[in-house]
Amino acid sequence: MTTIDPLTGPKALGAFLRAHRERTTPEMVGLPQVSRRRTSGLRREELAQISGISTTWYTWIEQGREVSISAAALARLAQALRLRPAEQEYLFTLAGVKNPQARPAAQAADSHLSHCVHLLNCPGYLIDSCWNMLAWNSHAGQLFAGWLERDPQPNLLRFMFLHPLAQTLLIDWEARAQRVVAEFRAETSHYAHSETLRQLVLTLREESSVFNRWWTQQEVLARQGGERRFQHPLRGQICYHQQTLVPAGSSELRLVMLVEQSEDRHVS
């Protein structure tokens, strides 16, 4: 049985910092290249020195001990590790410290969102913080035919890693799925105390070795739009541009729209 790593608290904070320390090379932070290093990443004492904190104190943090850490110290660690905005937000959430630059949270969900999804003239769906599919329109139903109409409780992550249709429907499935894990990890930081979310991650780690491997890599990425390509059994290859919106007043929900792209063909 796979042991789930905690989604929040000292142990999760330590695991996250260690993973990013080990992938940060001395060259990335301006340190001279030294031969015969046992690891390509930074040593604990090097990161502590760059961040202006004691090596002992940083070691305790990485070991998952209960220590106090300030927003200023977290900001210095984030800067030293070259963390991106989504990774920085995740770091602050794990530490239970308010990020001074965090965006204000939205309020209650809008009761008319499901109706809005059905009015879209493109595949559209609404997901919650666990990426459960709360609503979708007929265009999305046709795109994901074979899954949505048969699953009584469809979940986008479970589809991606546990449903056989995913790897044939999504072109370049591996790259897309790996990014999905990193995006989901970024969003879990906001709902880390949710037992439902913890159980979802535990199940996926036990049932999908691929999800488990990518989850343990501690990658964190902000949700990104862009091109999404599908190999549909009836329509062939379809190219969409994905847009993901946070509905006003519904910070835990995401409205995803897939706008079909027309290929420009030039005849020479």
TrEMBL record:
Gene3D superfamilies: 3.30.450.180, lambda repressor-like DNA-binding domains. SMART domains: HTH_XRE. Pfam families: HTH_31, MLTR_LBD. It comes from the Bacteria. InterPro entries: Cro/C1-type_HTH, Lambda_DNA-bd_dom_sf, MLTR_LBD. GO terms for molecular function: DNA binding. PROSITE patterns: HTH_CROC1. Residues 41-88 form the HTH cro/C1-type domain. This is Helix-turn-helix domain-containing protein. It comes from Rouxiella aceris.
